[in-house]
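To whoever picks this up:

The nightly regression suite flagged Multidrug efflux SMR transporter as changed. Nothing in the input moved, so I suspect the structure step. Input below, exactly as stored in the fixture:
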Amino acid sequence: MAWAVLIVAGMLEAVWASALGASNGLRRIGPTVLFVLALVASMIGLAYAMTTVPTGTAYAVWVGIGAVLTVLVAVVRGEERLGAARAILLAVLVGSVVGLTAVA
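Regenerated output under the current build:
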């Protein structure tokens, strides 16, 4: 259960990071509200997961999921480009997250 919550919390990290970017310095109300709600939910999920998953592992998995998804959201929106080098590095990051969950 904690792992599932941690994965969802990592996904919510991508939501709040993307919403923060869209908030124009917290000046746009819709993205700002989404940022706050997703941030709180993401932190609660991370905190819950840390009750059974070691802190370092939980944090690394949470950040890894959030980072990869945040980049992918930006690529889909056309805000960033995904070249071969970035794709390979993101794949390594995903592999690292999977590896951390496997050995935890």
